[in-house]
Please model this.
Amino acid sequence: MGNKGTAWIAWSLLTAASTAGCAVGPSLEVPDNSTRICQSTLAGDTDYWFGVPITNTSPHAITLKSVQLGEHDHVKLSDVMVVPPMRLEDGTTLGFGVTHDPAAQNAALWAGRQPVAAYRIPPTATVSLAIALRPEADDTGSVASEVITYRVDGEPRDRTATSRLTLVLASDCPAALEEDV
Model:
């Protein structure tokens, strides 16, 4: 075998070794169904918080980069935080749900919140994205998807995962949830 053949084999082995630790397939499990969650709107200018659970299914840590709204109508993203689950005395775990005032609903859980950018999720761990929405004009609005940008440790490129959890703001939640079903 000539120098070109030896160089080709060496390059092929180096490429295989450098990509062997890379994860294949999705590494971040997000809601991917037709579930719709509604929160009743209040008078005044306020944020409405929704919890979106995400799980690192990779054997490597994941570093979150950003969260953006995907398909949305009449709402804007006001804030987003990561809220790790809290272990309760009885051994169960409390995650972030739906609320108008997270600090008042559960101060201890809310105290554990962290910024999204650079938050590391260990392998197999689940956290909640606490997403704050604010209506743009009316007291109604919705988000049909949330786009999460992240990086699996050891990989050279960012990945994205799209949650399909529908978040709805409405003055009449039962009626709003019956629409478009």
Observations:
- The two ends are 66 Å apart (CA to CA).
- The longest helix spans residues 3-19.
- Residues 102 and 110 are 6 Å apart (CA to CA).
